[in-house]
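Why predict the complex rather than its parts? Because the way molecules touch one another can change local conformation, and only a joint prediction can capture that. The input here totals 867 residues.
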Amino acid sequence: MRARLKYVAALGVIGLSALAALGGACSPDLPDEPYACGESGTCPDGYTCESTVCVKDGATPAQVRSMRITWINSAEMYWFDAPSGGADLVVNDGFTPGHRGLYEIHVSELGDVDAPAQIFDFAEEFPTSSAVVALDAGHYGVLTMTFPPVTSNDQDVSFYSLDRDTKSDQSGKPPVAKRTMQYLGGSEPAYVSAVRRTGGQVDVAYGDPNQGGRVVFARIVDGTWQDRFTLDLPSGVLPLSADCLLWDVGDGLLLRLGLENPVLYYVPDTATSAADVGAPLPVDGLPLYGFADSVLTLVTSDDGESAEYRLVDYDGNAIGQAIDGASQGGLEPHTGWVHDAGALVAPLSDDGSFSSLDFAYVTGSGIKKVGSYERTGNDELYSSRAFVRDGRAYIAWTSFHDALMDLWVASFPIEGFE
Amino acid sequence: MIQVSHRIAASVLLALGAAIAASSCQVELGDLPALCPDGACPEGYDCIQGVCAVPGTQVPITIARVGNLRGVDLRIVPQSSGAMIAWETYAYSPDLQGFLARRVSPKGEASEPFALDQTFEADSGLLEPYFDVLAIDDEHALLAITAPSVDDDPLPRIAVYAVDLPALGDEALGATSSRVGQEIRVSTIGYGAVSRPRLQRGADSSIELGYVVSRSQAGETSAALGVIALDAAGKVTGALPTCVSGTTPDTCPVVRAGDLPVAVGVFDAFDVGSSTFWTLDDSRPSLLAFDTADDPIELALPALAVPLMADAKGVTYLEPSARGGAQLPSDPVVGAASLGRVALATPTKTEHLFDLPGIRDTPRPVWIPRAGTTSLLVTPGVAIDSPTLTVFAVNTTTGQAKRVATIERFSTLELGAVSAVVVDGKLYVTWLDVGDDQATIRAAVLDEP
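Output of the joint prediction:
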């Protein structure tokens, strides 16, 4: 926590003094959530700082603004079963100066939202891209790509095993493995991806922008990093835009590669070289989740105000009924989140303001809406991720507020879906 | 300490003030008790630059409050009388994408804000645009903007706008802007590889726009400097540089070879006789110079060095104090700063000239060369949250650095940027106070030391 004298520090002191004075003769009528309490955590008597907001003791907010940050990338929000019950949300605050790192937010099975706990301090000048998986009930696997400090020209890719019960910074832990490439500049590393497979191994993919650019595939088995092979970038994917996103499709992986015009590859588990990876799949729109024979894609209108969630086969042919809905210009669902044999996809809404945050369950054969949350506020959305466990839905979303971003978390009972 | 925005704090104070008045609560007011948007202050205080203050206090001018602002997006441009402070609002902000400005007069009065341009379209989810602004005269300016794509073509864009500025004193009338020609699409190696543009006026009044082009060809990644020649109306004169147009053979100077990163921007330029020398990147800087045969020579400088002055024989640079901690821009710095020099004849050899007082690299120190006398150096010194900015007069012949002025910030928020110019005997300084939920652009005007 940084202690700093504000420009209006005198004013703040007066505010406290005045509140103290008013405690005797004056009684201002304050609402349940009167102030932001920020890093200092200071609130009036009778209020407690909960997730950056002073909340009246005994009050339970329906939704919690867990973080106000500069930006959280749409790729870097992850839900997991919490070992103690409920759910754990992990996010990468990659852009807030002095606060860059991974944060875990525990949400109990009753819906209580804990304050964010920094579990990995990136302490970097630039954002660090990351992918998080649950290695087991007690450990996260974290893949990172970091730009170097000014004293180095090495761009590192590292894989860490972090204890889940520590709830504190573990950036001092040595990585399980590290790979290094030359730093070429840019504003932030491309997205990296990791997916835990049946059997426990973790498949990873990341872009190396050197020599024209390539995707590097590797596998972590029993804590050991195994290099697999590399795939040269296709002509439409630029070296610093080689964002990677993997989905487990049973006997292989689907790789979404690229930023502006991503392409989709099927990568069989038996592949040992790029020659074993076929041509990009002819799928229109933005792939949001992959299955053994199908892909969920998002097609947005030219004006960015409407969206169609469409299930297609690997040849691009539609499967079943699509879901139509609203969209917003800055909205990036990015990916569905695994749930049983399918995935939950958020946010959907029939309302352009997204006052109703809906989410859908998609499998290889169809898609349907299964939950909805009426949010308070109408800030424009950036991204969202939904999660369901033991009859309770958990939803996290980021929205723009002034020139900053808010991370919100809500949970509620859900019926008729498990 | 209650941490609230200025606006919320002010409203709370007003409410509390009313309650205090109603109930006879007694509190001690400090030196700067409140904002005074309507000019009203408690008895014994004057409203100075929008803040209730003890009479006579030199309160910084508040130029603008924004949600966040990159340090490179704060500029100050000389005018015939006063200076124009320019900044950017981002597409994801409530103000949407825009390039705004306010003038500051020699008396320290800020004009109404006006938009240099609000028509440029940016993608709110991608890298924020970079810009540079060059005043042609008091009523005309060029605005160069570089940004990622907003369509399916992944190539970034270069756009030049001609801006008709309001006459001095008529800022409330606003400015008008129009894009000159089409946007130029330029090669890139991908996300983030958008060069910061630099507009530079040459000795013959020509105008040049520098841009670092990055490219990936046949398994090779490289960069070249494209210099686009413009006229005073912003129109491209002659052919585009080959690295910008993509034509072959490519005659642009190759830059950033070896271990230097290639996805970088242009940070400064020096008019050196018949040539312009260009500073590339700020963290691992290099200077692209030209010898007497007009052949390019790239001088690699120490990490975080700031080129200060260039001539036909070489460049003098400031090497800030060493970063400590995790080597972050916000980390403490240790030791002295120094002046150094690299000669074109020995481009890989740096020469230590003199030690200077401790100076951090972030915010980037401001250097104002002055003909026939000392240069001015504006910096917070070693502390990123220094409550003051110090102005040194530096003799580059002897290395003497004399403190000649101090600017009180009345803040220990971290500094995000400092910029300054000298115009007609006045030193105009602007800086960025960075808070948790907003950044504030402030300024001060003082007699030229």
